[in-house]
Task: structure prediction
Amino acid sequence: MMYTTSRKPLYKAVVCADGFSMSVQASTSAYSKPRHDDGPYTEVEVGFPSEEESLLLPYAEDSEKLTETVYPYVPVTKVSLVLAKHGGVVEGELPDGVPMLKSEYGQK
Result:
């Protein structure tokens, strides 16, 4: 018997003006609140940041491999702070409820 599932497509990773990048996901299968495919979301799953980010440390699933792990249930306000700290977004996608803080200057 063949099983099929329809998963919500993943959001493209965000890249910030200073080159920092991370995945930000929210859906039925992600560590997000609410945990369904429609936002707006209040908490999202962050994953695989390009470098250690101190604002995300409390949420790390694996504190030994900070660039190779996911960060469950990160408040969208914390994600906004990370994006602002790294100069804003130059490319990528964010789930509904996460403000798109675009960079005025583009990638450095």
